[in-house]
Amino acid sequence: MCGIVGSIGRGNDTVDVLMDGLRSLEYRGYDSAGIALGPELQVLRKSGELDALTEVVDANDPTGTYGIGHTRWSTHGPPTDANAHPHTDENGRVAVVHNGIIENYAELKRELEAEGITFSSDTDTEVVPHLIAQRLADGVDAETAFHETVDRLEGSYAIAAIIDGEEAIYAARQGSPLVVGVGDSCTYLASDVPAFVEHTRDVIYLEDGQRVRADADGYTIFDDDREPVEVSIETVSYTAEETGKSGYDHYMLKEIHEQPTALRQCFSGRADALEGTISLEEVDEIPQPDAVQFVACGTSYHAALYGASILREMGIPAEAYLASEYALSPPPLSLGTLVVGITQSGETADTLAALRDAQSRGVTTLALTNTVNSTAARECDHAVYIRAGPEIGVAATKTFSSQLVGCNLLAEELVEGQRDLRPLIESLRGLPDDVQSILDSSAAASLVDDYADSDAYFFIGRGTNVAVALEGALKCKEISYEHAEGFPAGELKHGPLALVTPETPVFAVVIGDDERAQKTLGNIKEVQARGAPVIAVTDGESAADEIADETLMIPETSERAAPVLANVQLQLFSYHLADELGRPIDKPRNLAKSVTVE
Amino acid sequence: MASTTANPLTSAVVLAAGEGVRLRPLTAKRPKPMLPAGTQPILEYVLDALIDAGVTDIHLIVGYHANRVRSHFGSTYRETPITYHTQTNQLGSGHALMQARDGPSGSFLLVNGDQVIDSEIVEAVSTAHDTTATLSIVEGAEADSYGAVRVAEDEITTLTEQPASGEFRLFNAGVYAFTQQIFETLETLSVDRGELPLTDAIQALIDDETQTVSGVRTDSFWMDATHPWDLLSLARELLGRGWVEPSADNDGCYVADTAHIHPDATLVGPVVVDSDAVIEAGAVVGPYAAIGSSATVGAGTVLRDVVVDTDTTIGPNTTATDLVVGQGCDIGAGLTAAGNPTEVVLNGAVYSDIDLSGVLADRVEIGGGATLEPGTLVGPDATIGDGVVARGRIDGGSEVVR
Questions:
Q1: A230 Cβ neighbours under 8 A, 6+ residues apart
Q2: Most confident of A75-84, A540-549, B72-81
């Protein structure tokens, strides 16, 4: 997964437009980057973060009136200068950037090598410029050469290419995101809208199979039969500055603090507190499903665990599946099953594959996503938006909170029957202020002094708080690089307890004072007996705060809303731990924001 | 005579770093610019005025609880980019302005983030600015509470903070335009009294014969809140002018689309009910009530002359007038809070004849059947039990039981 940009019609601003675009796509990958400029083809690329490329650009002062650019997250070949995009053919006539995986590249490479072509990188991408160059050498025109090359590619890709002396950019989409920005006498291309939103908000979301030719006069969109097609231009509402850090040290901290607003937006207009009803107009015609299968990855999978848990409590058989497993080992399902994909970006390749598998088996699919018009939103039968606003930090924070609220709204909409939802609505409406009160007074930062040099961090909980424990551990490992694991509290004694020592703090999520809370208190004593310090994340209903060594308090609320609050405390701990350890919080090593490769 | 320039200024610096000590206990967890003017933060009105006057580049100086400002506005407001500058120690308005030294490049506007202003004042200062500094000047009896000025032609000859004598009629309304000279002048001044007020720098400019400080007279609306009860008169003024969001006017009732008003509830204009707020059956709200986003007014509750901030729940059968309620409060059934002119003691000073039943800071919890005696000030996170008759000052975090 990588980020692509392209720009034509901006004259001497082209280099700046491309570099700014790459900067805003850095969250998609950042182990190498490059640009290619025309009409006199020139390629600059560099391994490392974008700053390394910036130095190269500053030193070379390249000129060009159109071009393409790329920021890379390695899938094929290590992050080296040679593997950085753009890739060119042997004569340097064709430059190509690519996001995704070309599945038949080995076969194409063998064929090209047999014809005497020398490859200079380990990437799957490099077959593309060679194929285009080969067709050009055969005497076909540039546009035909591009179409014929794309026809031969299998797999998932978004590709952009420029050819020496041809004042045009060619691009194609198949399975990886690609959007076109329509400006005044200029055209942009990118993997995601933020790359050009400061120049235009008029956007074309390409469909799979579509191709683009953009030149100084405008653009043409083709289908995979090379026939021009009419497409609609949509106007996106958010601005480039909305993705700035607004004075925070990190996007992650900004997004943690945006949670009250995000939760308010997610809930707004979707519940009637007077009537005690919840309605999601996007899905109000879906009948109650016989069963629900959630598919998701990473943080979204933890939201899926929570969603499945609350649906089961309501009497609907529901399970959460890791999307990467689902498509390859699909569980049985009946036609009355609803498959819900949870994906922040709506572009997560594994989740898309799982949803497509479900769709191929004839069931109804639904996307719970933050990204309007994303692939998941367009491909599924239904889409519910969590309205959290753009999230740039690689570690998901506000979108997880909004996904949990989204799961509640979805569950209440799907499950028929008369219930007085006023207490639930009251607690969900109260979440923004409850989160704000945690942000105002959290003790999480002060724990870091005592626990920053621990061997490992464990997180335990029961019921819906298992999802919180798993998410707390994931956040911790993602950004602090420290070893962290989350467990259902009862599982500790079946193995993981062997890892518990005085050097492994245990975060225990204890909400309310029911049987689950009581049993978790037992688990707290279990680990304390092994010398582990315990940090209770609790509403103070049980004796957890008295037993534990440290306490992170959350306001009292409903059982459904409490996991959101407990998680905010854990987000803050992980953030401050990573900050103390000097980690690159917004761009943790080896990770990227939206994973658009399987 | 200052001639008007064709191009209004496009950069502005906004001072939003201060706590607002006299507005305690409302400012325990947020800076004064984030207190409610009706249902919106005061700072929104300030930024609206700037943007309406043509400003396209906003520099916000933040300090005290800066994250509240950052999280509310983010990187843009009404599509206008905001750059944040952090003032770590609150050492006065001049020191605050210095934090934006690398901000605007040419002449720029400076406004206070805690004072509602009409965009006409900004426009007047912006277009008149052709000297080193331009100040908005208003006339009024309250001159001796502000920075009083003397003006000859359009030039300001004297600036005195809160003069003891009653001889001044003109004063500084807190909207300024400066050239970059202000930064150089500020740099020559020392912070020897523990703070660096902007007025010291303006005084230095007045004293400098090579520089000119001009005044622009205005009679447009501006209003600040000095004490907690001023939020009531501020809301009253804004409601009276219809300067509230949402703007769809229905007999002076400004109700957001996502608000839920029970058919048996009564709104008496002017009143504003913000997004996702709920007014239950039989409630009578207004006149002069500002009900914030996601707030709830319980069944049968009667509210008049109140400011109820975001996320607060007011239980059923409450009667309240002249009451300021912060964010996230939870008030049980049957509260009685009636405002009669009263004496309020705040930070050691005594204020007489104040129409105020009480001020509840953020996240105050009140049980059923409680009473607030006029002028009660309750600190944040305080808990007042069932049936308590509260009076005077109740500290933040404390618990009062009958």
A1: none
A2: A540-549
- Residues of A with a catalytic annotation lie at 2, 593
Asked if B260 has any chain A CB less than 8 Å from its own CB, the reply is: yes
Look at B67 and A248 and tell me if their CB atoms are within 8 Å.
yes
Point out which residues pair with B48 in neighbouring strands.
none
Q: Give residue-wise pLDDT tens across range A442-453.
A: 999 999 989 999
Give the tokens for residue B145. Answer: 């509470």
| Average pLDDT score over chain A | 90
The DSSP bridge pattern shows strands A318-322 and B108-112 to be unpaired
* Domain pair B11-224 / B230-400, same fold: no
User: Which residue in A197, A235, A248, A274 has the most chain B C-beta atoms within 10 A of its own C-beta, making it the best mutation to test that interface?
Assistant: A274
The predicted pLDDT at position A132 comes to 95
pLDDT at B388: 95
Classify burial at B241, counting beta carbons within 10 Å of its beta carbon; exposed 0-12, middle 13-18, buried 19 or more.
Answer: exposed
Q: Which residue of B has its CA nearest to A432?
A: B311
- Residues in chain A with CB shorter than 8 Å from the CB of B309 are none
Model ipTM?
Answer: 0.82
- Provide the chain A residues 438-457 that lie in CB contact (below 8 A) with chain B: 439-440
Whether residues B75 and A433 touch (CB distance < 8 A) is answered with no
Give me the mean pLDDT over the B107-132 stretch: 92
CA dist A55 and A481 (Å) reads 29
pLDDT at A586: 83
- Which residue segments constitute the domains of chain A, with CATH numbers given? 3-242 (3.60.20.10), 245-439 (3.40.50.10490), 442-598 (3.40.50.10490)
Are A433 and B327 inside 8 Å of each other by CB?
Answer: yes
Asked if the B230-400 domain carries CATH number 2.40.70.10, the reply is no
- B74 at the A interface (CB within 8 A)? yes
At residue B1 the predicted structure's pLDDT band, cuts being 50, 70 and 90, is very low
Distance, CA of A591 to CA of A83 (rounded, Å): 18
